[in-house]
Amino acid sequence: MVDVPAYFDVVGDGVEPTRFAASQWSAAQVVGPALCGLMARQLELEHATDGFTPVRLTVDLFSAARFEHTTLPTVRVRDGNRIRVADVNVVQNGKIAARASAVLLRPSEQPAGELWHREREPVPPSLELAPTGPEPKIPLFSSTAAQDDWSSVPTEHENNARKRTWQNPIRVMTGEELSPFQRVAMVAEATSMMTNWGDGGIGFINTDMTLAISRMPQGYEIGVEADSHFSERGMAVGVATLFDRLGSFGNCMVTSVSNAARQISSAQLDAVMASRI
Fold first, then answer.
1. Which domains does the chain have, with CATH numbers?
2. What's this model's pTM, rounded to 2 decimal places?
3. Does residue 166 contact residue 140 with C-beta atoms inside 8 Å?
4. What pLDDT score was predicted for residue 77?
5. Looking at the DSSP assignment, which residues form a beta bridge with residue 10?
6. Which residue in 152, 132, 156 sits closest to 144, CA to CA?
7. What is the per-residue pLDDT across 227-262, written as a single tens digit (0 to 9) for each?
């Protein structure tokens, strides 16, 4: 695990971002997936105990987190027999840069009866194209229903079609393996990219993320497929389905604000992907 890249190092009573945590919007701020994974890790460590499992994570990204010493105080808001709720803050220099809330449930018996399901399941890339394995991989993208449409070159998907991605992210903390919850918290943040990416690049930056899952992801890779995008007057909302090689297991919603003055082009994304090879 020593050579595997990670977003944060443990330093004293908190953590500090590594160079891998730089955002595409600004190299001076921490990227969204890193913060989502960091808060998921802290909530899981302190509150996913006694048989409780996280089913919902809501992250508020209302201020830019910087490359500074960071602490993560949590509080257990509610502790019942079946439902537990906990909050965490990302604190830098005495100020809150981001926060998250988790709902954790105690698994129980499934009720009887048939329910509606999505008519078409998202399809992962083939194992030949995307072999499974524990090491982080370059993200793959797709913008058609074709099985061979997957590639790591964003300009090949510079269109207004439905987007999807397949990812095995880097670690949250240096020297630690990812838990399934940390893994899905980071990959789910790609809902913003998948729902806000059009034929002119990405012009919205998400201000939050709400992840809801019925089970933990299986395996190392997770997919995100856009379901909807609505936007007017520089405000947007997008929803995506989360899936692995066993099928769909949850969804994610983001709200976003226009960042047209610093719109990210597909060519810029190409350069980011190339730097990770």
1. 6-107+129-275 (2.40.160.210)
2. 0.94
3. yes
4. 98
5. 15
6. 156
7. 999 999 999 999 999 999 999 999 999 999 999 888
